[in-house]
């Protein structure tokens, strides 16, 4: 009696369960990948179409029957066309100058302020922090009108300074760095003070090197935001030689009035490539930097 | 004040006073460049904007009159403004559920993948880093009635071709779809971060408690625990969608027949094309009001989210 195989009952059912479970698992895996791949195709379609069109010849672009791969390689003509009609490389260089200038000033201004807010006691500290939090809520489109009028009155429209000026202060950088600095141990700062280091040296030689991950992430965020910004450059720049990549793209699209798709997609490829390549090289940093913010 | 400080650390009393004084000086010195820029870039322009919104100031005009609230009354009656605001809200209403829902779906599907996860992550994140203006031009081509492959597929399937960007009824949904394409990877990464914060044993515990199906698991554990993340994603997506400008400026310019006029584009035209500074200032304040409504929630959530 004692050997009656009571536990055998569930065991008897077992040979069926793993097989059906396996089948169900395989089916659900299939569905999951089908959904993901379908999504990926939609996401990638514009990029693939852009690159392929940029090496196609006009008859093939306007052909009724679609072929993915071009029969005649027309890339040299399209890219040459785009490069000769508008100063594409100049746009990219402008983007680099503007983004670099903005980032440099942003970090130089935000780091000391964030350190002061995190570690120093001084009158007006809480009021300043409240202003920083308030500033987080104000997009560039709000102060744009008075800033534009001011720059126009000073005769500074159509300058690099005009493109960069509204972004010299990043309240987000101050907020972010402050959070980071707050976690820095006070003991080390005290020790440095006793060693006779000035606050200035403490900030730039001790605290900043430790805040490297936050600064790197912010840099990515700032570069992507300002490389792609259209609204403000569109307002203050009318001289094509100073155009940033999006503005340059817009000038080009206007000039071509949407007819020369080969050259248009070639230009789009050239202006999109720097950030996309940088993203593929430093994936983690990019995803971290852009998403830590939520503010675009 | 200095007495209590001196009592607390009696051995270093004199340098402590000097230290406090130095600290104040450094604090003011370090924060003054930021404060000055804050005044020049944000505070002063905001005050000027407020003043302008009560006047009929135009760039280059000789006489400026104080109008009181007339600009706001004009806005309420202005068909262009009403249409722009309405279109913007419809646009947000389309982008929000799709952008959040698809971002969540992709994140949930990706979270349990091991080998393929980073591949899909890169693919879905690609549009976020790309220059929207350049990609908008490509989309315009993709959706072209006769030359674009999308309509080519529709024709091959026996449907009529659709003027995605030329038929008034289709323009806003199409622009919204491009926006979803652009930001879904961003939301996906936020959701993935939220998902990885959910402890694994919770799922095991739920399985023991008889919670077996994937949908069951999602509803009892994942969805409630993702609450704060979802909240954050909803707010950022709303703000991003509310600020729609780029695609309208480069593809449709508000057309056809005003069907894609949006708030920022209306402000851009009034302020920087027609130079009606006073009226544009009033519209900007309306814009700010909406963004603030979203942002108050955002700052609130952000304060808890960034964990540096």
Task: Characterise this structure.
The complex is a heterodimer of chains A (296) and B (308). With 296 residues, chain A is mainly α. Helices cover 73% and strands 0% of the residues of chain A. Chain A is flat. Chain B is mainly α and 308 residues long. Chain B contains 14 helices and no strands. In chain B, helix 4 runs parallel beside helix 8 (168-196). Chain B starts with a helix and ends with a helix. Mean pLDDT of chain B is 86; it is low at 1-13. Classes of the chains: A mainly alpha (296), B mainly alpha (308). Chains A and B meet through helix 2, helix 5, helix 6, helix 7 and helix 9 of A and helix 2, helix 4, helix 5, helix 6 and helix 8 of B.
Derived from helix and strand composition plus strand pairing, the structural class of chain A reads mainly alpha
Q: Summarize the amount of helix of chain B as a percent range.
A: over 70%
Question: Number of folding domains of chain A?
Answer: 2
CATH fold descriptor of the largest domain in chain A: MetI-like fold
Average pLDDT value of chain A? 85
Strand content of chain B: under 5%
What's the total helix number of chain B?
A: 14
Keywords for this structure?
heterodimer, A: 296 residues, mainly alpha, MetI-like fold, 16 helices, 73% helix, flat, B: 308 residues, 2 domains, 14 helices, 0% strand, disordered N terminus
């Amino acid at each position: 009696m004692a050997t009656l195989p009571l536990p055998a009952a569930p065991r008897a059912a077992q040979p069926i369960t793993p097989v059906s479970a396996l089948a169900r698992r395989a089916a659900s895996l299939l569905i999951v990948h089908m959904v993901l791949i379908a999504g990926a195709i939609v996401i990638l379609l514009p990029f693939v179409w852009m690159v392929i069109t940029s090496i196609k010849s006009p008859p093939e672009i306007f052909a009724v029957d679609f072929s993915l791969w071009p029969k005649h390689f027309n890339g040299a003509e399209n890219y040459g066309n785009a490069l000769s009609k508008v100063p594409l490389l100049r746009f990219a260089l402008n983007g680099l100058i503007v983004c670099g200038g903005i980032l440099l000033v942003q970090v130089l201004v935000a780091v000391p302020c964030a350190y002061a807010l995190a570690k120093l006691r001084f009158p007006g500290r809480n009021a300043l922090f409240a202003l920083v939090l308030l500033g987080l809520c104000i997009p560039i489109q709000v102060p744009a009108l008075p800033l534009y009028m001011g720059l126009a009155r000073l005769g500074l429209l159509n300058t690099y300074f005009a493109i960069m000026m509204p972004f010299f202060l990043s309240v987000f950088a101050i907020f972010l760095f402050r959070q980071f600095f707050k976690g820095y141990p006070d003991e080390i700062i005290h020790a440095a003070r006793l060693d006779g280091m000035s606050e200035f040296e403490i900030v730039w030689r001790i605290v900043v090197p430790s805040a490297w991950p936050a600064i790197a992430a912010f840099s990515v965020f700032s570069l992507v935001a300002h490389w792609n910004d259209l609204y403000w450059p569109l307002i203050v720049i009318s001289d094509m030689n100073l155009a940033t990549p999006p503005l340059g793209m817009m000038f080009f699209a206007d000039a071509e009035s949407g007819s020369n798709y080969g050259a248009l997609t070639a230009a789009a490829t050239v202006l999109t490539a720097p950030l996309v390549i940088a993203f593929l090289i430093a994936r983690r940093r990019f995803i971290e930097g852009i998403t830590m913010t939520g503010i675009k | 004040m200095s007495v209590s400080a001196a009592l607390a650390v009696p051995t270093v009393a004199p340098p402590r006073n000097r230290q406090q004084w130095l600290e104040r000086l450094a604090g003011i010195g370090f924060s003054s460049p930021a404060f000055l820029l804050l005044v020049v870039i944000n505070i002063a322009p905001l005050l000027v904007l407020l003043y302008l919104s009560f006047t009929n100031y135009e760039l280059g005009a000789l006489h400026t009159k104080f109008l009181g609230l007339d600009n706001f009354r004009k806005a309420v009656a202005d068909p262009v403004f009403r249409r722009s605001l309405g279109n913007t809200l419809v646009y947000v209403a389309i982008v929000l559920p799709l952008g959040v829902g698809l971002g969540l779906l992709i994140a949930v599907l990706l979270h349990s993948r091991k080998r393929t996860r980073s591949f899909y992550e890169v693919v879905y994140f690609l549009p976020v880093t790309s220059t929207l203006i350049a990609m908008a031009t490509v989309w315009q081509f993709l959706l072209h009635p006769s030359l674009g492959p999308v309509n080519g597929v529709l024709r091959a399937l026996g449907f009529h071709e659709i003027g995605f960007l030329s038929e008034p009824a289709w323009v806003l949904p199409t622009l919204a779809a491009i926006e979803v394409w652009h930001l879904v990877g961003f939301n996906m990464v936020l959701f993935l971060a939220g998902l990885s914060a959910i402890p694994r044993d919770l799922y095991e515990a739920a399985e023991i408690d008889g919670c077996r199906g994937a949908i069951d698991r999602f509803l009892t554990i994942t969805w409630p625990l993702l609450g704060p993340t979802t909240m954050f994603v909803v707010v950022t997506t709303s703000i991003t969608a509310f600020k729609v400008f780029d695609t309208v400026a480069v593809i449709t310019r508000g057309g056809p027949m005003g069907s894609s006029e949006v708030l920022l584009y209306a402000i851009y035209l009034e302020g920087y094309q027609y130079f009606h500074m006073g009226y544009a200032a009033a519209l900007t304040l309306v814009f700010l009001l909406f963004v603030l409504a979203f942002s108050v929630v955002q700052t609130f959530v952000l304060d808890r989210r960034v964990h540096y």
